[in-house]
Every structure is written in C-alpha cells, then in structure tokens.
Amino acid sequence: MPSIENAAEPDAWFKIEQGVFKAGGQWTIAQSARLDQKLRDLDAGSGEIITMDAGGVDRLDSTGAWLLLRTRRALENAGRTVGDLKVPERYASLLENLDRDDKRQGPDKPPPRMSPWQYRLYRIGKATVEAGRQGWRMLGYLGRVTVETGEMIAAPRKNLRFAAMMVQVEETGISALPIVGLLAFLIGVVLAYQGADQLKRFGAEIFTINLLGVGVLREIGGLITAIIVAGRSGSAFTAHLGSMRVNQEIDAMQTMGMNTVDTLVLPRVIGLVIALPLLTFYANIMALIGGAMMCYFNLGITIPVFLRQLNQAVDVSTLMVGLVKAPVFAFVIALVGCYEGFQVERNAASVGQLTTRSVVESVFLVIVLDAAFSVMFSVMGI
Amino acid sequence: MPAEKDASGPGKKDVVIHVKGLVTGFGRKIIHDHLDLDVYRGEVLGVVGGSGSGKSVLLRTIIGLNPPRQGTVEVFGKPAGYAEGARMRALEVRWGVLFQEGALFSSQTIAENIQVPLREYTSMSQELMDEIAAMKIALVGLPPDTALKLPSELSGGMKKRAGLARALALDPELLFLDEPTSGLDPISADQFDQLIRELQQSLGLTVFMVTHDLDSLAAVTDRIAVLIDKKIKTGTIEELRKDKTPWIHEYFSGPRGHAALAGSR
C-alpha cells in the first residue's frame, strides 16, 4: 500500500516536563498515526496546572493542530487546568479556527457506533420491514396499472401509443429470437438426451418423446422464455426508466401533464404481453426440434415416427396450458421492471442496484407463479 | 522536506505549478497553444475564460487526467501531467481536488468519503480517522450529523463543502477547485468564497481555482489568469481592468464585472 508515512522526515515529539507539555518537530498528517497512539497513552502525571508549549513545532497542519487540541481536552478531562497552548506565530490562526469549530460542534462528535451484533440485528430487521413495504407498494402499483390497462381496453383513448407498443414488441420479442431460439433448442437436446438415457433401461425409449412433448409444452418452454425475457427486457425496462429518472426526464413529463403510466408503462406492459406468448410458442417449437434431432441421432427415431408419437402424447390443450401462463408472466415482468425503474434515485449506484433487484424479483415471481399455476391446474384436473 | 515557507511572509516567490509550452487538443481542435503559466506558493489564482476556452482542460492536464500533446507541467518542481505510478502518487498526496459536482462516492457516507485517502495513504486507527473526518466536516462548516449521511441526502452546496472536506483530508499544500461556486445561490456562494479564503490563510494553501463567478474572483483571488486565444494572460484584477484586449475588457467592464468589482471595494 502506498503511504505518505515513510517520508524521511524528522520525528514529531512531545514530553511532559515540570508541568509543561512540550512538543516539537513535524506535527503533520504523515506523523499522525504514530503520534495518535502515543498521545492516547499519555500519562497526565500529577499537579494542578499544566501549560502546553508547542513552540518547537517546525510544521503544523490541520491534523497536527487537531491532535494538540485533543490532547488539551484529554488533559482537562483528567482534571488538570491547562494554561496556555503556545504555537509558533504563523500557526496561531489555524489553531484558533479549529478550536472555534470544535467548540461550536460540541465535545461528543462521532455518534456511537453499533456493536456488530446490534448492527446485524438492525440490518435483518430493516430488511424484513423493507421487504414487507416493497410487497405492499408493488401491490399498489399492480392495482394502478391494472386499472389503467382496464380503462384503456374498455375505452381506447386516442393517445394510445401504438407505435411505442410496437417498438416494445420488436425490442422484447423479435430481438430476443436468436437467444431464446438457441437456448430452447439446447434445452430440448438436453431433455431428450437425459430422458432417453433413463428410459432406455426400461426399453421405453419411445416415451422420450412423451417426456419431451409434455415437459416442453407445459412447463419448460414457457419458463425458460420468461426467465430469459426477465433478464433481458425486465432489466432493460428498469435501466431505461431509471436513467430517465436520473436525467429528470420523468419529472419533465409529469410537469407537462403527461401520464407516465400511459406513456411509459402501458406500451411496455402491453408490448411484452403480446410478445412473450409468441416467443414462448417459438421456443416450444425450437425445443421440440432440438429434441427431435437428439432422438434421431441418439435413438435412431426418424422424424415421421417422432411426429406420430408426439401426436399421441400431446394435444392442443397441452400447448394451451403452457401458453396461457405466458401473458401473466409477461405482465409481472413488465410491471416489476417498470416499477423498479420508477424507484431509482438520482444517483448512479441506484440504477445498478434497482436493475439487479428488478431481475431477481421478476425471476422469483415467475417461478412462484409457475408453481401456483401447477397447483391450480392439478386441482382443476387439467 | 524543506522547511515550509511562511505563507504570509514576503520573500522570493516560490513556484508551485510551472507550465511551459503546453499544447493540448482533441482531434484537430487545438485548445492550448504553447501556453505558459506559473503559480506561486501561498497565492489564490483564479482562472477565467469564455465557454470552451479550455479552463477545465487546463486543470485536468495539470492534475494528470488529460495527456498534453507538447510541453511540460511541473508541480512542486517535479514533472506532473500524465506521469505514471509512484511518481504521480507522490504528487497526488500533496494536492487536493474539488470537482464541480463534488464527485463524492455515492455509495459511501460523507465520513467514509473523507476517510478514503486516509485509509489509502496512512495507517491511522479507525478511531483517529473518525475524529479527523469529524474535524474536517467542522472545518468546512457542515453540521456534525453530516458524517453519517450519503451524498444523495445532501444539497448541492453541502456536497461541495463535503467534496472540499475530502480534498483537504490529507492536508494538501495545493488545492484545485473546479468552479466551486457554480450552481450555488449568491449567499451560499459568498459563504463558500469566504470559507476558501479562510482555509487558504489558516492552512497556508496554494489555490488554483477555475471559475465563472466574478464575485468570487474579486473576493478570493490574488491573481487572475485569463485564457484567451489559446494562451493565457495573468495579472491582478487591477492590471487586467486596464487591459485593452476586447474579451478581457468586455469581461471586466461589462455590467456584471462592474457590479462585482464595485462590491469588492
């Protein structure tokens, strides 16, 4: 670690002699760590009156001057009466200034620090309360956006931002095609491979296709797509709206009487609600293609056989069960992304923090909702 | 280290910043063309100039954030300006910089901000660092509870004061200020000027101050450097008022100039 302390300077020194505290040398920041320890251990000695003579100081900066003042206070607290504090003429005003500041601020300046345990407890408590509040506020926001969406559907306003919506469909949907397609394809490959590996032991390789079809269409396709989109578009929403807040663009819109939910949130929510089911369907197809390829190369199942078996394994309702979840996921992802974007404060760290939070929350909610859907479907017997 | 010169005493002028033949520019645009400048120990130098005349670029070049094309910059008699490694660091601990918006680290409290250089360059105990931070906060005139606040909780003027406290953390000999009063209301600006003057005198600082503020110039500076036509012209405020160069004449004799100078007397 670089240091200013090993500068080859003559030491600063001090001693107590016959009721006089004498100091000299370089009383500067470079010496302060050393002086600090020694001064804390200073033995005030006995006697009523003590004078402080720092006339021998060659150099004094604000750190050194402050150490002198602190020493005087320590001596006073030890019951000594401190007479003069003498410093060279040229440093008198510095000492005076610091002394004045010190008196103005009162003696107990640094507020008490918490003990480590207290601090941990404090943080747990704070985080818990904050999580509760966050949920409550999000619920409020959900209500607001739902009402505004409902209003807009019930009575489409002239200023429905169709173009903005389409831009969102493009950015969240079309631009995501390559990555979603590739990942879905690979998931299909992996699923078919693992399934085939296990089912081979029972001589039931052909049921790999059932596993693949049902697994992908009902669960995996939708879930993977939603998670990718949460990471890709949810974060983009938060970062974009967050930077707009940092630049006060959102304040500007509000003062122009524009409804920020209308102009910023709804295009994103509706855009994603349109895009995500389409993306999910596309991901399903890609995963099935990946699985079919694996079946062909690994199990020697030809495409016509694959399709016939798939036809027996799944029907339209299997697909629909998967697809019906997508708009709900989309709504939640967009909502969380926009909500967190509006929470950004006017500093750089906040954008990063809330973008992270937005992704974590939306992925969490997507998985929780997926589980809820599973329970609901099994109760309904679908 | 040579004995420090008495800040208020007369004697041979001791050059702290020595800029010679400096050329800087971006792309094809030349900003400074063989510019020379000396800053003496214990003085407050105000740097003025029109928008885009390269005031901030000059400051950034001296503190090594911007590479010069030609010419030399010496600070404390040692080459500076885009030097690397240990040599630059030896200089950096002897100066403090206050950026325009304070440039406080937004994720740290004010006390932690002030302690960053202390932690980096000294082996002080946490206790002493807390005390020093509280002292610096008092020194720049902020209330004690500022220590535990985050920069986002402070007003613009308080941020500047906190930035100044951080710039003063290592007790520098030289202080760079980039538009210290911009964005402050006139009363806060006056207080800030006064604070700079007071600190400069009691700590014996040399101050290099880029500013737009005529009142600041009149109240704080000993000497003024005007950036004009890619060069620099220095002088006291009295000398520059007599200058016939159109921009300088306009600057000091315009309505704002008149008001500021009248007020300073």
- Contiguous low-pLDDT stretches of chain B (5 residues minimum) are 1-11
Q: Please state roughly what percent of the residues of chain A sit in beta strands, choosing from under 5%, 5-15%, 15-25%, 25-35%, 35-45% or over 45%.
A: 5-15%
Return the string of H and E elements of chain B.
EEEHEEHEHHHEHEHEEHHH
In the sheet with the most strands of chain A, the strands line up as 1-2-3-4
Rounded radius of gyration of chain B (Å): 18 Å
CATH superfamily of chain B: P-loop containing nucleotide triphosphate hydrolases
End-to-end gap of chain B: 40 Å
Structural class of chain B: alpha/beta
State the strand order across the main sheet of chain B. Answer: 6-7-8-3-9-10
How many beta-strand segments of chain B?
A: 10
Report the top-level CATH class of chain B. Alpha Beta
Which sheet architecture does the biggest sheet of chain B show?
6 strands, mixed
User: What is the CATH architecture annotation of chain B?
Assistant: 3-Layer(aba) Sandwich
Q: Roughly how many Å apart are the termini of chain A?
A: 66 Å
- Weakly predicted, low-confidence segments of chain A: none
How much of the sequence of chain B is in beta strands?
15-25%
The backbone outline of chain A, from C-alpha atoms, is elongated
